[in-house]
Design a protein that fits this description.
The chain is an alpha+beta fold and 222 residues long. Helices cover 32% and strands 21% of the residues. The chain contains 4 helices and 7 strands, in the order ααααβββββββ.
């Protein structure tokens, strides 16, 4: 099993997330990362760092400090994985040396010839915790847990919040996940609003081979 790029020790995670946030803040425009996605990540980083301060003081921290920190880290770490997959790992504007400096492994490109994906994504959206949603993807004739299509590198989502888009081309947000099952944390400003989501299987090397968009899925952010 490949080593996880996110450090498990709390001190190591604090250094990792600080380095990531500094580089994202400095390069977001050049990397073509939407401002609202950067703001959402920064909001979670601020909450994490606020919780980390009392947690890091081992001789004076309380059970409440520990619980607050663990909750903040879990939410921040989950969103970091989504953010890295969507805007860093496969971003051609982020060179391999920068990914290495951030501790993010560079994916090897598969060499075999692949065919166009004909299957749509079967998408299920569930709430996992406050302001967080879990997205489970699989092909229609497969049952059970989330699973990536054999011909795909990732799942691409496009969505709007609040107002239903007329089509996938009218959506206002997008991201890409290399995992078929993943969580996304949303900003408090979206609480109580509906999210309208389209999904498709993504070929990262040749978009012409990517699959068709599914019908819109609708759920409420709470």
């Amino acid at each position: 099993m490949a080593r996880d790029y996110i450090p498990r020790p709390h001190a190591g995670f604090a250094i990792f997330e600080n380095n990531l946030m500094n580089e994202v803040a400095a390069n977001a425009t050049g990397w073509n990362i939407p401002a609202d996605e950067v703001d959402a990540l920064q909001e979670l980083s601020d909450a994490y760092n606020e919780a980390y301060k009392p947690f890091a003081k081992k001789h004076s921290r309380t059970k409440v400090h520990i619980q607050n920190y663990m909750d903040a880290r879990a939410k921040h770490e989950t969103h970091i994985r989504y953010f890295v997959n969507a805007f860093v790992r496969s971003n051609k504007q982020v060179d391999d040396s920068m990914k290495a400096a951030l501790g993010i492994p560079v994916k090897k490109i598969r060499r075999r010839q692949r065919s166009r994906i004909e299957d749509q994504v079967w998408l299920m959206i569930t709430e996992s915790r406050s302001m967080m949603m879990y997205f489970k993807c699989r092909i229609p004739d497969k049952e059970g847990r989330a699973s990536m299509h054999a011909e795909a590198d990732a799942v691409e989502l496009r969505y709007s919040i609040g107002s239903r888009p007329a089509s996938v081309d009218e959506t206002t947000h997008s991201f890409i996940s290399s995992k078929a099952g993943f969580r996304i944390a949303f900003s408090q400003k979206f609480r109580g609003q509906y999210i309208y989501v389209y999904a498709r299987w993504k070929n990262m090397k040749n978009d012409a081979l990517s699959g068709p968009w599914n019908d819109v899925s609708i759920d409420m952010i709470s």
